[in-house]
Amino acid sequence: MDFGLAGKKALVAGGSRGIGKAIALELAREGVDVVLTARSIGPLEEAAKEIAGETGSTVSAMACDATDRTAVEATVDAAAETLGGLNILINSASAPGGSPNAIGRIDTIVDEDFLNDFDTKYMGALRFTRAAIPHLKKAGWGRVINISGTNSRTPGNLSGGARNTSLVHFTRTLAMQLGRDGITVNCIHPGMTRTERTAVQLAERSKKTGRSPEELQAQDYAEDAPRTNSIGRMVDASEVAYVAVFLASKQASAMNGELLVPNGGAGKSVYY
To answer: Taking the complete model, does pTM exceed 0.90, yes or no?
Structure first.
């Protein structure tokens, strides 16, 4: 299927690894030229070289701290200049899993960590989107895709839940503001997703438990396991990226302010 993306220009915030990198790769495979941003230039340059080599698309790297408004605005403007315009913004910058101190009881929270997590993911998305809007309007066609997460639907992670729930509200609000400018704004809720970190985490658990990574994976996705989903396996980052490519496509022009959840059918709640 032709998604109508060849020749489009994208900025992927949080594009050096994980879901952001996977989305950048799939966009590049569709003929999109991409600028990757994250805090550290080394991993960004490695990711850009890898994606460009595999796809033939133009892929550039620009270091940027999502918590710095001036840096974000300068990076978005530089990306648009480098690419010759901007059509697609992927907001995937985050501290994975939320604040490390906010998974348990409320008395474990370190305020600074909590606020930094929110500042990076929610305010980062706001900063990148605000800076991108003039370029998207100039192009007359735009897509903003926010990568949120299903811990917004699961109690336990106070910072991860708060930041992700806020991104859903942000998505719908911006969709109402920008739809008539030819710009759609949608959100993706990944669940447990296989990324570069997964093999490392499994190896660490394997060393501690004496069980193989394969056994641990089978245990995690057994029918009665806490992490299980209805497909019985972990979703890969590429599968989340396919959803992002669809939302960026011409075929998704009627999707605006919506939330898609490629988590393998995890959970038993009914949403309507």
So the answer is: yes
Cβ-based neighbours of 54, under 8 Å, separated by 6 or more: 25, 28, 29
> Side chain identity at 38, as an amino acid letter?
A
Is-contact 159 117, C-beta < 8 A? yes
Q: What are the boundaries of each domain within the chain? A: 9-192+236-260, 196-233
Q: What are 158-203's pLDDT values in tens digits?
A: 888 999 999 999 999 999 999 999 999 999 999 999 998 888 888 8
Query: DSSP per residue over 246-260, as a string?
Result: HHHSGGGTT--S-EE
Sign of CA dihedral 150, 155, 157, 160: positive
Listed range (41-45, 102-106, 217-221) with the worst mean pLDDT: 102-106
- Which residues does 26 contact at the CB level (< 8 Å), separation at least 6? 238, 241, 242, 244, 245
Across residues 1-19, what is the average pLDDT?
A: 96
CATH architecture entry for 9-192+236-260? 3-Layer(aba) Sandwich (3.40)
Determine the average pLDDT of the residues in 27-44. 97
